[in-house]
Write a structure and sequence with these properties.
Largest sheet: 3 strands, mixed
Number of domains: 1
Shape: globular
Helix content: over 70%
Distance between the termini: 45 Å
Number of helices: 13
Order of helices and strands: HEHHHEHHHEHHHHHH
Radius of gyration: 22 Å
CATH superfamily: Rhodopsin 7-helix transmembrane proteins
Strand order of the largest sheet: 2-1-3
CATH topology: Rhopdopsin 7-helix transmembrane proteins
């Protein structure tokens, strides 16, 4: 999924193109060897402020999501479909943030903010792939909660271990194939003139603005992908939770209703956080003049959301907290 796109923080420097076609072709070949990620280069004081903030949030993201994966693997009581998909979500969050945060932190402290052509393509592909996979994975997790609450007796049969691996694997592979296709088509375009990407990553929409060829195929693919990966999974999630809510309301006891809802409340919170921020970024009215506040919000959105996922699951889920205590206790007792 492309990063939410905003206008550039400032105007890119102008370059003089050679008039002849041969010279333009030479410019295309040399200029596309690397890109400049503009980011917040016009605001050095803001860069100094963002560096410790983003570094701390990235560290929490790595530690929190790694802990979720470790607990899910080490505690046999968490070897269930729900925690299998939660482990996949944590791995996704680690991969997603690691595609751009380390380089962004380097650029925040460096005057040279370049990235090679190949590096840009890899960053673009991995960012698209992990973001797209998360959209599908959240829908799969909603389906898992629907079966667990609305079909409890048949749940072990319907959501078998084989089906879990099949659903998760299909999401990873299909989104990777989609992202590779989008990246290859976008990066095969000719790039003329300046090579300054008005973003802090090689975001595909920002890179396409530098292309001097026909971008209609890339834009059409991105539009189809956005429709399939945003409103369609969201509609599926809404349908699943509508059926879940109807089932919970039919539970006779208040304690039973609370227990049923607690099994899916953490996932619902993650869904609201993920889709809420994405919808806000895309539906927000765009001003003609780009504002640095929009860029700052984009950075925080991209870093904060993966950081909060393990926090939400650890705070809202007693099983995760209890499993973490057991794993931690076993580790200390073995020393």
């Amino acid at each position: 999924m492309p990063h939410p796109q905003r206008g550039s923080v400032g105007s890119p420097p102008s370059y003089t193109l050679f008039p002849s076609t041969a010279a333009v072709g030479l410019v295309n070949r040399t200029e596309a060897s690397e890109f400049v990620l503009k980011g917040f280069s016009g605001y050095p004081s803001l860069e100094c402020l963002l560096f410790p903030l983003c570094a701390a949030m990235y560290l929490v993201t790595l530690l929190g999501n790694t802990a979720i994966v470790a607990v899910s693997v080490l505690d046999v009581h968490l070897h269930t479909p729900m925690y299998f998909f939660l482990g996949n979500l944590s791995i996704l969050d680690i991969c997603y943030t690691s595609t751009f945060v380390p380089l962004m932190l380097v650029h925040l402290l460096s005057a040279r903010k370049t990235i090679s052509f190949i590096g840009c393509a890899i960053q673009m592909c991995l960012s698209l792939s992990t973001g797209s996979t998360e959209c599908l994975l959240l829908a799969i997790m909603a389906y898992d909660r629907y079966l667990a609450i609305c079909r409890p007796l048949r749940y072990p049969v319907l959501m078998s271990q084989r089906l879990c691996w099949l659903l998760a694997g299909a999401a990873w592979v299909l989104c990777l194939f989609k992202s590779v296709t989008e990246t290859v088509i976008a990066m095969r375009l000719p790039f003329c003139g300046h090579r300054v990407v008005s973003h802090f990553t090689c975001e595909i929409l920002a890179v396409l603005k530098l292309a001097c060829g026909d971008t209609s195929v890339s834009e059409a693919l991105l539009l189809v992908g956005a429709i399939l990966l945003l409103p369609v999974p969201l509609a599926f999630i809404c349908l699943s939770y509508t059926l879940i809510l109807a089932t919970i309301l039919r539970v006779p006891s208040a304690a039973g209703r609370r227990k049923a809802f607690s099994t899916c409340s953490a996932h619902l919170a993650v869904v609201l956080l993920f889709y809420g921020t994405v919808i806000f970024m895309y539906m927000k009215p765009k001003s003609k003049e780009a504002r640095v506040s929009d860029e700052v919000f984009t950075v925080l959105y991209a870093v904060v959301t993966p950081m909060l996922n393990p926090v939400i699951y650890s705070l809202r889920n007693k099983e995760v907290k209890e499993a973490a205590r057991k794993v931690w206790g076993r580790r200390w007792s073995s020393k």
